[in-house]
Amino acid sequence: MTDREALLALLATIRPRRQALDDEETQLVADLRAAGCQWKFIAQALGRETPNVIATFKPKLEETRAVRVKTSPKEKP
User: Fold this and answer.
1) Which structural domain range is residue 41 located in?
2) Contact present, 41 and 50 (Cβ < 8 Å)
3) pLDDT of residue 1
4) Number of domains comprising the chain
5) What single-letter DSSP state applies at residue 2?
6) DSSP state of 60
7) Cα 20–24–25 angle (5° rounding)?
8) For residue 13, how far is the Cα from the chain centroid?
9) Low-confidence ranges of the chain (pLDDT < 70)
10) How high is the pLDDT of residue 45?
11) pLDDT for 9-30, tens place per residue?
12) Which residues contact 33 (CB under 8 A, 6 or more apart)?
């Protein structure tokens, strides 16, 4: 294999590695959001502005909000 062929082969590996990193980053953001982490802290960790981080990741996430019925204290007879 020539130097040129080796470099081309190496270059061809970048896209899948970049996609894998993007996927990992998205999963980490999803995990942080599920753990209740605010967007501003995620943005700080990424070194980006909050609105840009929200615009990038929110469309990729399916966020649900847990709603539970409060249990009332038992009444004493």
Assistant:
1) 22-60
2) no
3) 83
4) 1
5) -
6) G
7) 115
8) 23
9) 67, 75-77
10) 98
11) 999 999 999 999 999 999 999 9
12) 39, 42, 61, 63
